[in-house]
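Q: I'm building a small set of examples for a reading group on sequence design. Run inverse folding on the following structure and report the sequence directly after it, with nothing in between.
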């Protein structure tokens, strides 16, 4: 056995057990499970976000047991793409697919030592992700301290400031689990706009859930939905409307903050001289 540093995402599918129970006697739900575990979870996506196979040197793996999913990739200077970003993208893709089935995801992303095989994973990196999931009160995927440090290291080394990261109302860094990038959607045959309309219908329906705790989770998720509508309207389309709920202080695209004062450069102007401001933090899509 050899432990190596990995990026690890531990995901818990909320309310999944009842769906599995029903699938034993419902062909439509059984087909949906088949698509999830045959297409989404083992499917590997390319570093540029396309739904094709990852470069072999990334060694991305997806393991699942009942309502838990673990995505991992080793940290290596020889990899063609940062493992932390690769695992984050895959976790978002899985969250999209599950929301399309009517489920929310809660989880955590960590970086630490892991030993893994094709059917098992163990180590402090995995344990930190599992424990991190417990700190996620709402249906969100949080970054643990080790993951935040790894992200800071990527940024300080000049890596692209991906727009898939956000900050929740408690100040935790989270993944934007429904980031509206077209190749993160469950299939490429349906537009981002149509998927977001489906998501809206699902969220609104569950805001009347008979279980109070379930309603609270969907209420928080409605706020994440609204924050995406507000921040990424050009990517989503015009028809999905925000849900009539008060927003918590979710900061989208947290690595690319807008200028606090866009007039600060006026003092640099001189007659006949144009000032061109280059923003090194401009958002770039994964």
């Amino acid at each position: 056995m050899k432990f190596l540093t990995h990026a690890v995402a531990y995901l818990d599918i909320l309310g999944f057990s009842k769906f599995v129970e029903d699938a034993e006697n419902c062909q439509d739900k059984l087909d949906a499970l088949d698509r999830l575990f045959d297409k989404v979870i083992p499917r590997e996506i390319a570093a540029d976000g396309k739904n094709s196979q990852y470069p072999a040197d990334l060694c991305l793996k997806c393991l699942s047991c009942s309502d838990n999913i673990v995505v991992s990739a080793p940290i290596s200077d020889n990899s063609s793409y940062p493992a932390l970003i690769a695992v984050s993208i895959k976790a978002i893709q899985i969250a999209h697919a599950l929301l399309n089935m009517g489920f929310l995801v809660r989880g955590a992303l960590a970086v630490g030592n892991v030993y893994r095989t094709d059917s098992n994973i163990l180590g402090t990196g995995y344990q930190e992700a599992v424990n991190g999931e417990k700190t996620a009160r709402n249906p969100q995927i949080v970054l643990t301290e080790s993951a935040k440090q790894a992200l800071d290291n990527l940024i300080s080394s000049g890596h692209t400031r991906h727009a898939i990261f956000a900050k929740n109302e408690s100040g935790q860094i989270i993944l934007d689990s429904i980031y509206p990038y077209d190749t993160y959607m469950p299939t490429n045959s349906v537009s981002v706009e149509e998927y977001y309309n489906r998501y809206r219908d699902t969220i609104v329906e569950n805001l009347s859930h008979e279980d109070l705790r379930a309603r609270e989770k969907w209420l928080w998720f409605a706020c994440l939905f609204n924050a995406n509508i507000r921040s990424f309207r050009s990517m989503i389309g015009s028809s999905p409307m925000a849900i009539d709920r008060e927003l918590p202080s979710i900061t989208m695209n947290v690595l690319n903050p807008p200028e606090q004062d866009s007039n600060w450069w006026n003092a640099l102007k001189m007659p006949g001289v144009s000032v061109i401001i280059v923003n090194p933090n401009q958002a770039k899509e994964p």
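The first strand starts at residue 4 and ends at 14.
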